[in-house]
Amino acid sequence: MADDPAPGVGAGTDGLAPGGAAAQGREAPGSRLIVALDTTEVEVAARWAGAVSPDCGMLKVGLEFFLAHGAAGLRAVARAGRPLFLDLKLHDIPNTVAGAVRAVLPLGPAMLTVHAAGGPAMVGAARRAVEGGGAGRPALLAVTVLTSLDAATLHATGVSGGPRQQVLRLARLAMAAGADGLVCSAHEVAVLRDALGSGPVLVVPGIRPAGVAAGDQARTTTPAQAMAAGADWIVVGRPITGAADPGQAARDIAAEARRQGG
Ligand code: C5P
Q1: Residue 161 within a domain
Q2: Predicted TM-score (pTM) above 0.85
């Protein structure tokens, strides 16, 4: 069980000098598990949130849910008392991304995502916009290369290097432009730590407990492996939300992550 007092929505980050979110992400006591609430049903999301909240450090809401229910949906999830990760993977011209960030700041997310491929001006604009949230501002995370893009697909979009090379290029770009951290696969954690040090908050999806079907995630990692590799947070969706008892599934995964220092 997470033994820290549940931080309120928007209380997920604190005292953020550059890199401050990174430090905060690692110092907060309790579970390193983020549960992805991927559904279009408010009642379902709220039920999952209530079931997993004692054992997760954060709840993740993505495009599917947010486009269907917006602020009202987010408030319904927030009642579970966990900080929210608003995973919208924003990607547009800098002015529009900054406006989108400002639009969601009043909802008090603890983390927000943008695509690093939007370029340094866009990531920088997002950073300046999150700073409008003051001391409790969200941590700004950058997505590098979607795991659904393989080398051939990247090549078709005009990217000549392989996924590894592109991940590293975009990670450097995003961190230099003001991101607090990165969303990455567990297989990328070591190389990102080597290249960028301990500063970035590394948030790792694609997690499957040993013995659970991989679903559409091509390369998966167990919670223990991801934490041992140096992840700050692991993101788990369907292995928890699709379980007969989501609360128990979250408890088991959080315990496994914690055994590895999570
Ligand atoms: O259900 P599952 O555990 O596969 O959910 C993973 C979550 O992490 C989803 O919400 C998905 O959008 C997100 N994800 C991501 N980046 C990836 C892979 C998954 O943000 N590369």
Answers
A1: yes
A2: yes
